[in-house]
């Protein structure tokens, strides 16, 4: 009898606590952002690292939808030039409606740089993993838009395929700062990526030939 009463009391207490807790929606305005992550200064080997430039094209990177993407293009273009000079493999991606002609000129692919076309996960139904393994790539630098789209999903997939992921936060852009913060926080703290992901900026990355 005592055990039965204790069980009922325990269930009632748990139910009350859950009711008091509510959902994240009820607490939305009370939530504070966690401290900013510490950025690293990684050194990568050009022959073992690939630069993934994701969906930097007219429909996704423009002043109407994502002005922060447009603002980041000169920085991305400068790093792309540096990567090419070091003979680092470069891969590009399109959205499903994109084409070679829709890439923004400062970061448009060269003829020898593969292009994959998919939804937010650029490994999905493409030969990206096959291309990377053919070049013995161990690390990918994920750069592009949208932060909570191609960047986050492709970085997560890369980790699941066994690659180390470098995430330059200055070239992972979205429609708002909140979107970028959410993507960066999720990738740094998510169980699928946290052990293989390095947050940084493009200027902090040193390339060894």
Protein traits:
alpha/beta, about 35% helix, about 210 residues, globular, 9 strands, single chain, two-stranded parallel sheet, Rossmann fold, 5 helices
Give a verbal description of the structure:
The longest helix has 20 residues, at 2-21. This protein is of the alpha/beta class and 209 residues long. It has 5 helices and 9 strands; from the N terminus they run H-E-E-H-E-E-H-E-H-E-E-H-E-E. The strands form 2 sheets. Strands 2, 3, 4, 5, 6, 7 and 8 form a 7-stranded parallel β-sheet that branches. It has one domain: Rossmann fold (3-Layer(aba) Sandwich), CATH 3.40.50.
Number of E-type strands: 9
Order of SSEs, N→C? HEEHEEHEHEEHEE
Low-confidence stretches: none
Shape: globular
- From the alpha-carbon coordinates, what is the Rg to the nearest angstrom? 21 Å
Helix percentage = 25-40%
Q: Could you give me the name of the CATH homologous superfamily?
A: Isochorismatase-like
Ends apart, CA distance between termini: 75 Å
The overall number of domains is 1
Class based on secondary structure composition and strand pairing: alpha/beta
Most strands sheet: 7 strands, parallel
As a percent range, the share of strand residues is 15-25%
CATH class descriptor name: Alpha Beta
* CATH fold-level name: Rossmann fold
Total number of helical segments?
5
CATH architecture: 3-Layer(aba) Sandwich
Q: What does the average pLDDT come to?
A: 93
